[in-house]
Amino acid sequence: MNNEKKRHDHHDEDARHLFELLHNNSDWVWEVDAQGRYTWSSDVVTELLGVPPEEVIGKTPFDFMPPGEAERVACAFGAIVTEKRAFSGLVNRNQRADGSIVVLETSGIPLFDEHGELRGYRGIDRNISNLGERVLQLETIYETTPVALCMIDREGRLVMFNKAMAKLLGDNAPLETERRFQQLIPDYWPFFLTDFALAESNEELPSRELGWRDRCYDIQSVPVRDAMDGVIGLSVTWVDITERRQAEHKLASANKVLQQYAQHDHLTGLFNRRYMDERLLNEIARALQDDFPLSVCLADIDYFKHYNDTQGHQAGDDCLRLVARTLTSARLRSSDNVSRYGGEEFLIILPGANLAQAMNVAEGVRNDISALKRPHSASPTGFLTISIGVATLQHGQLRFEEKPLHMIASGLIHRADTALYAAKKQGRNQVVSARDGHASTESTP
Ligand SMILES: Nc1nc2c(ncn2[C@@H]2O[C@H](COP(=O)(O)OP(=O)(O)OP(=O)(O)O)[C@@H](O)[C@H]2O)c(=O)[nH]1
């Protein structure tokens, strides 16, 4: 009898204690039915929402939230109820009876009846107004930023992802967090495995440029660590750089076209004088450095003014194009360069060619042009011909040249021009070298 009374007293004591715990605490304890209507509430609700427990019964949590917030939370809570799972840390804004806003952190566990059917939830709400407002703001920023963000854990699960990331994944977007990245974008998983390995060894993670469904992304992972500094996941940023890359490609092609214009003669397609002057400086510098000879051939169409005057300017242009084609199809080395140097004047740079070799090339070119048998009434041959002046920077002689490059270049061109003048003077349709001023081939009248 005595023991029985003791047990009874204990029971009373526990019940009083439990009552105190439930109603006189900082957390609000509640139960809802399967439709989310409160079926039981501790007194703490008065403190949190400014209404007594009896006014809460029959209502749902969404009845205490501002409309936009109710919609947002309903969305998150809908997924939880569908899966009939426990949840925690669900942050939500509520409107108190006096109109003020209180931010609550809600956690709960599902309750099942004897048939295993969901009969409701039991849980607690905690007032986190100070911290909560900041958390919600950060969540909003995370959710609505146009940059795609996600967090991948070590098993490849997509633990978190924002709206932009869901859009990026499109119909690949996971409906449950259990979906693994390996299944979503299998090709990228090896990159993240590498990032995990680098993060483990405290190395910097590189940014990567990868394509996914016709878009181009700049992807950067940052390790997420636990309290013991272990890597538990990767926070990944996906910046869509498709437009930037497209603009860069357009710019590169435009630059290519501009460069083509800047370096080429539009009539013949050959390199122009501006390019060739620069090229000549580079070739002379190379010849000086490696101590090899370099020659230039300056070619000029004979009696071209007359050709123009009799055949017309258009035919003159065609003739210039024909000469350009013939010069480029001559058997030159790949390092040789042909340009239109002036109106009807062409320059050929022959790196590595000594005077004899250059004379040979020039003679071949002269011969090619006369072999075209292009009628030209003013020419003594009756056909189109060219005259060529050849000048060479001799191997060995260069070493002692101490002039600036541009002076060596202009001196070389000047000597070729003087030789060309001599060729014209001696009857045209011939090649003359700057050294001796003698024609290598006489014109054939
Ligand atoms: N059709 C055409 N003619 C051009 C072009 N550039 C220069 N010319 C012509 O080339 C001719 C060059 O004439 P001249 O410098 O007097 O020389 P030439 O008549 O060839 O006489 P020699 O060089 O002494 O044999 C001029 O009539 C220019 O108008 C061009 O792009 N197209």
Automatic annotation (TrEMBL):
Enzyme class: transferase
Domain PAC: 85-140, 192-253
MF terms in GO: diguanylate cyclase activity
PAS domain boundaries: 14-84, 134-170
All copies of domain GGDEF, residue ranges: 292-436
EC identifiers of the protein: 2.7.7.65
Required co-factors: Mg(2+)
Gene3D superfamilies: 3.30.70.270, PAS domain
Keywords from the named record: GTP-binding, Nucleotide-binding, Nucleotidyltransferase, Transferase
Reaction catalyzed: 2 GTP = 3',3'-c-di-GMP + 2 diphosphate
Pathways per UniProt: Purine metabolism; 3',5'-cyclic di-GMP biosynthesis
Coiled coil (UniProt feature): none
Stated name of the protein: diguanylate cyclase
Protein's organism: Kosakonia calanthes
